[in-house]
Design goal:
With 488 residues, the chain is an alpha+beta fold. It has helices at 22-34, 85-95, 115-119, 172-177, 185-189, 196-211, 217-245, 249-270, 290-316, 318-324, 332-337, 342-346, 354-357, 376-400, 453-463, 472-479, 483-487, and strands at residues 11-13, 38-44, 49-55, 62-67, 73-75, 98-100, 132-136, 148-154, 157-164, 279-280, 283-284, 420-426, 431-438, 444-450. Strand 5, helix 2 (85-95) and strand 6 (98-100) form a beta-alpha-beta unit. The two termini are 31 Å apart.
Length: 488
């Protein structure tokens, strides 16, 4: 393994920096933020340390360490660097370390079974007789995860939305850290069931870095094909759901059928429509043969023509445009300051994408696509153009891919001792980050997961302000965030 490799994805830290004084720690964070760095991770360890990873595209990862403050308090970073607001809420909940001056220091997720606490959540409220509250969830219609939305309205206009999560908290990070880190693939795929490839790939990359393994170019290509297939399938699912929310039923049905065509391609290769058990640390469980290569290309070519026809019809419909245009808007400033990523950020003109910012082999020349209006239309249109982009990438990767077998994978040795690995993957929702820290005996001391939904949920709360409450379901679906990905 290379020594102290900090400038490529996955990042490998063989020698952690020394502990800083707490004042110097926060000064360094502010200085790096002023230089354009953003927090990739920030958490407390079981050993009483604070770890912060500050990142900037094409530059080495900056890892900062300090001990927990003696009085369990420090001046909040969120007051001048809003991107830290969600990290500080989590730190307070998990370790009781208070960010003094934090504007919204509320629970992020409660431990499983804490029903009394869930029922006593400190919602923002108003005493004005002109306002009323609407509660939605945690039980929703249809097959959907639980989460509670508390909406304050003036007539039909939304003045404020507060989102209470935590109902899906399963203790995933603790489970990942318990036992042999090389055997946790099934758990990683279940972090968010609709992102089995995204989280599974992030897990594989981090574990491989710890074990000193680099998979072959062909294996990397197969993994990237799987990742882009997942993106296409979920973008089609979202276009179907958006069409359904506005009663554009032909679009709802056609996009749903096309999504099935795409995810059935994964089924044909690995036996799972969601790509489960396709990947594994050290390689893949299923390669792509020459015959499968040909079938996949032909299937996607046929689907591409149908997708193109359906999206043209969708975005040419006056009723669709009336509902999508200027609904649920976010600004570029909002998404930048709050560290949002994925569709949420790129729809506002923020060209943030892990495939460009932290590229692996297949994405060396990748350029993210953006929209600029930040509304439902932009989020829907961006899914449309990203589908086309992902299809083109898959065609190219298939054209260069040799006959690949599961046997091309690499056997993993034991993880290194007292080191850290950080992997970054652009899932279909946005930036996924996995951090693994090992102890002196090579066991897993800490496993940290960040799903893009963690940062992006607040974007929904901002987007619905001053919108009609009847547009809330449409706005919600245009973000399509994960409850379990945020709750872990």
């Amino acid at each position: 393994m290379d020594t102290n490799v900090l400038n490529k994805n996955p990042f490998l830290i063989l020698k952690q920096p020394g502990l800083m004084e707490i004042a110097d720690f926060y000064t360094a964070i502010r200085q790096l933020s002023a230089l354009g760095y953003f927090p990739l991770f920030y958490f407390g360890t079981s050993g009483g340390e604070l770890l912060c990873g500050m990142a900037k595209p094409e530059l080495p990862l900056e890892l900062l360490r300090t001990a927990f403050p003696d009085n369990r308090q420090y001046p909040s970073l969120s007051t001048d660097i809003p991107a830290f607001h969600i990290f500080e809420r989590e730190l307070y909940e998990e370790h009781g370390i208070e960010a003094v001056g934090h504007p919204w220091l509320k629970p992020l997720r409660y431990p499983a079974g804490a029903k009394a606490q869930m029922d006593d959540y400190p919602f923002f409220s108003s005493e004005s007789s002109a306002l009323h509250e609407v509660g939605v969830g945690p039980v929703h219609a249809g097959v959907i995860e639980p989460g509670h939305f508390r909406i304050i309205c003036h007539g039909e206009t939304v003045e404020h939305l507060e989102i209470q999560l935590g109902y899906q908290h399963r203790g995933v990070c603790k489970l990942l850290a318990d036992g042999d880190i090389r055997t946790k693939m099934q758990l990683a795929e279940a972090i968010a069931g609709d992102t089995a490839i995204g989280h599974g790939l992030a897990y594989c990359m981090a574990v491989e870095a710890l074990c000193g393994v680099q998979v072959s170019p062909a294996i990397q290509t197969v993994r990237s094909i799987a990742l882009e297939l997942e993106r296409i399938g979920m973008h089609l699912a979202d276009l179907s759901a958006l069409a359904g929310d506005i009663a554009y039923l032909s679009g709802q049905n056609f996009f749903a059928a096309l999504r099935t065509t795409v995810i059935n391609s994964s089924l044909a290769i690995c036996g799972s429509r969601f790509g489960k058990r396709w990947l594994k640390p050290g390689g893949v469980n299923y390669g792509i043969s020459a015959e499968q290569n040909k079938v996949l290309r032909n299937t996607l070519k046929i689907a591409e023509e149908q997708i193109d026809n359906c999206t043209k019809a969708l975005f040419a419909d006056a009723g669709v445009l009336n509902r999508f245009d200027s609904t649920g808007s976010l600004s570029l400033k909002m998404v930048q300051e709050l560290n949002m990523s994925g569709i949420t950020a790129k729809a506002c003109g923020y060209a943030v994408d892990a495939r460009k910012d932290f590229p692996i082999r297949e994405y060396a020349d990748f350029q993210p696509l953006i929209q600029n209006s930040g509304d439902v239309y932009a989020r829907a249109k961006l899914r449309n153009v990203e589908i086309k982009q992902s299809l083109e990438m898959i065609y190219f990767m298939l054209s260069t891919l040799p006959d690949t077998k599961a046997e091309d994978s690499t056997v993993l040795s034991a993880p290194g001792a007292d080191i850290m690995a950080v992997s970054v993957v652009e899932g279909w929702r946005g930036r996924i980050v996995h951090v693994i820290k090992t102890a002196a005996d090579g066991s897993t001391e800490q496993y940290k997961v960040y799903d893009p939904s963690l940062h992006n949920w607040f974007g929904l709360a901002l987007a619905v302000r001053n919108e009609g409450i009847s547009d809330f379901p449409l706005c919600n679906k245009s973000f399509d965030l994960s409850y379990c990905g945020a709750d872990l």
